[in-house]
Amino acid sequence: MKNRDIVIIGGGITGLATAYYLVKSGIKNISILEKSYLGSGSTGRCGSGIRQQFTTKEHIVLMKESVKLWKEWNNDLPIPIHFEQGGYLWLLSNKKELAQHKEYVKYQNTFGIESVIISTKETKEIIPDLNTDDIVGASWCHTDGSAYPFDVINALQMFLKERKVEINTFEEVNEIHAKNDKIQEVVTTKDKYTTNTVINGAGYGAKYIGQLAGLNLPLQPYRHQIAASEPLRNFLGPMVVKDELYFLQTHRGRIIGGTDLKEPSLSNLNSTLNFLEEYSKQITSVLPILSSVNIMKQWAGYYIITPDRHPILGPTKINGFILGCGYSGHGFMLGPVVGKLLASLIVHKNMYIREANNLTLERFKTGKLIQERAVIG
Q1: Smallest Cα–Cα separation from 68: which of 22, 18, 11, 113?
Q2: Mean pLDDT of 71-84
Q3: pTM exceeding the 0.90 threshold for the entire prediction
Q4: Which of 207, 198, 212 lies closest to 8 in space, CA to CA?
Q5: CATH architecture of 84-143+220-305
Q6: For 277-295, what is the mean pLDDT?
Q7: CA angle, 337 as apex, 200 and 76 as ends, to 5°?
Q8: Burial class (CB in 10 A: 0-12, 13-18, 19+), 253
Q9: Which CATH superfamily is domain 2-48+150-218+308-366 in?
């Protein structure tokens, strides 16, 4: 039996980032519980992109802050995380898309996001080898970028271990006990933890953890697959997006990316040849010089989707049971700001960004959903 101020369920970016900001606030009596290895869920399987080109105030404001925090992490964490602002180049195929993204950019600009609509000629200046035969323009934000997921996980782990935060891997939560709608205890495969505060940052396991606490969270898992190429000379700066396709080049030289096969909600993470064929077709259409490049690795991860494609953040009707889940493919990029928001909620009793309060579980009860339209892959 252990007594903890805070128990964090999930060893991905949500759990580690929240612990990071709690430690920064002076709270160290924390246990992080991860049923597998750190980053084994969506964090370690993501496409590594970090963008501010969204269509709702909530996503835009949170991501503007998150980019600021990513910059701080790049300087403050004990090992490099390879956060780079190489930009996002969102290719547009027709006049309807162009008009739509002009409105998106105009809205993003009102919050200080430096996105612009650029011409086909300007897209070629950014990526000379781009096939622009069916491109009428692009949405471009040079302050968007990427980071390397496992370097981020390792850097946060090192920071927390240096400050004696308990991180328990391969320890699965079996029970959550509450009395009078107040959290009291977490029971795992290895121990029991008495606590008044539990953070559900369990990624694809968040729905199950919610059920243990008596909540039915509106989350559905969708398999999304990714492929990585052999290492190449560094030639590609931005993340490139076209319809459901996205890809970038990592600091190690590999081209990684994916596309959406419009699959139903699935409970397996098997990779498929169908994905590889469709992804190869799409990426070589956009960047033909990749047609002779070898694919070295393929994997799958989950988008944990909510009905409005926004995360669920903050308090619940169970006092001390806090949510950070349902990112709909945006969890990695939102990681720093979500961690700071949840730490702020615990320490100061409020989430320090006003717009985050629109993203609580309560919105599904009241019907105040906020539909995000710029979801990739």
Answers
A1: 113
A2: 97
A3: yes
A4: 198
A5: 2-Layer Sandwich (3.30)
A6: 97
A7: 110
A8: middle
A9: FAD/NAD(P)-binding domain (3.50.50.60)
